[in-house]
Amino acid sequence: MADVVANAENSRSVEKLLAKEFLSLSFRDRNAISEEMHGVSCMLVEENPEMINESLVKLDYEISLIPSKYKKMYELCKNRYGNRTSSEPGGSYVNDVNFRLRFLRSEVFNATHAASKLTGFLNVVVDLFGDYALQRPIRLSDFEEDELQVFRMGNQQLLPFRDRSGRRIITGVEGLAMQFEEALRFKILYYLTWVAGEDFETQLKGVIVIIWPIPSVAMKHMKNNPELIKSNQVRLLGIPIRVCAFHFCIPDNPFAHALKIFAMTLDKKGRSRLKFHVGQDIELLYLVKGYGIPVDHIPLTGTGNVKTLNLKVWMKLRTRLEDVKGESGSNIIECPGSKDVLFRPSKMIKGHPGNVKFHSLIETYHEQGLGITAASKKIIADVLEWNGRILVWEKRGWWAKTTDSSQMQFKVSVSYRDYKKKNRIKTKIYDSSTYLFKGLDAKKRKRIEPEAVLS
């Protein structure tokens, strides 16, 4: 009983802290955070060459202001590789413009915050992986075999699709791998966030994190250790991507509320984007879905088992991408963009933003009475105009861009024809069902009217 009371008190104190910190923000900031968490808007900054160049100069200046004890790995990198980029002999990816832009975009071009994140990232990634992380990006092959076995358990995953706003989704489910070393959990997290940030759209829009623990598993390994919380905070600050929202889903029972201590591992900025969802599984799914998240992809079954099929396919793909060099891997697409139109015999693609827009085009041109050929040409032109791509699923485990115009025409034409056929069937069903009731009102009136006259 005492544990239950203590857990309830801890839960209330965490909720009070979150509410107090959120209300301390300006109305403008609160509104912007709320809209971004719901997927209504995104804190994008309009980029142009001049602004980018100025930001890169500011970033270098801000890094120079950071005391040496907080940027040891950055200085080691400079001593080893100088200003040589990865395309030069003996260079480092740390000097690449794209590497630095990742951190500027993750902090919405706030050079001061980006400098802290960049140097923090290097400190953590070298501590977790080794000195080679100063020369090149981390890879799946950098994990030991026993670490890969933990990775394959699926407690942490990067989902294969985006939310309605085009953001990648990272999940932590079941026991969150708490039974394993803290360093290994962060190795997996850093790898997932680094891979997510390889995509330009994700650099702009960030990622969302869904944490869906099973209390009976997670709480066995939960540690409320002040030193551990502090080290976790330092590691989380170096995450090389912007986290737009943390969605923490827990069942409504006193012991589960103790998991809210997770909030203390985040800094103040992270806590302002933390949302606790409390309820039964069905309730939680509906709550999360309200934020534009495709809940069908959450890798957890109704009985609490972790789904790993997509993860295993993804890990094979990553191995291939990291081994492939040159043009042979240029047509391999790991995760479709939000403007892409997907063709795959699966219900999982229906909620993809590009496909939703694609189907609205089909409906529009069908209402205008266009034929299949004319409509398909217009639809393809519209998709290309909004910088979308026609992607098809390869059975080997990735998406490939369709560049052949006749193949694109065929794919779109089939979709348009199928829509017309389904619409025709629906119309027939509607007509046949209403036909049965035609004239019933008149017949009733004919039976009723003589009685009315007699009365």
Care to describe what's here?
The chain is α/β, with parallel strands linked by helices and 455 residues long. It has 3 domains: 1-36 and 138-324, Phosphatidylinositol Transfer Protein Sec14p; 38-136, no CATH class; 336-435, no CATH class. It has 18 helices and 9 strands. The protein has helices at residues 2-23, 27-37, 49-65, 72-81, 97-106, 111-129, 145-152, 182-196, 200-205, 215-218, 226-237, 268-271, 281-289, 309-323, 353-367, 372-385, 405-435, 440-454; strands at residues 156-158, 168-174, 207-213, 243-250, 274-278, 332-333, 341-343, 390-394, 398-401. A 5-stranded mixed β-sheet has the order 1-2-3-4-5. The protein has a 4-stranded mixed β-sheet with strand order 6-9-8-7. α3 (49-65) crosses α5 (97-106) and α16 (372-385) packs across α17. It is globular. The N and C termini lie far apart (77 Å). The model is unreliable at 1-9 and 443-455 (pLDDT under 50).
Structure described in brief:
The protein has 455 residues and is an alpha/beta fold.
Write the layout of secondary structure elements.
Blueprint: H1 2-23, H2 27-37, H3 49-65, H4 72-81, H5 97-106, H6 111-129, H7 145-152, E1 156-158, E2 168-174, H8 182-196, H9 200-205, E3 207-213, H10 215-218, H11 226-237, E4 243-250, H12 268-271, E5 274-278, H13 281-289, H14 309-323, E6 332-333, E7 341-343, H15 353-367, H16 372-385, E8 390-394, E9 398-401, H17 405-435, H18 440-454
Parallel strand pairs: 2-3, 3-4, 4-5, 7-8
Antiparallel strand pairs: 1-2, 6-9, 8-9
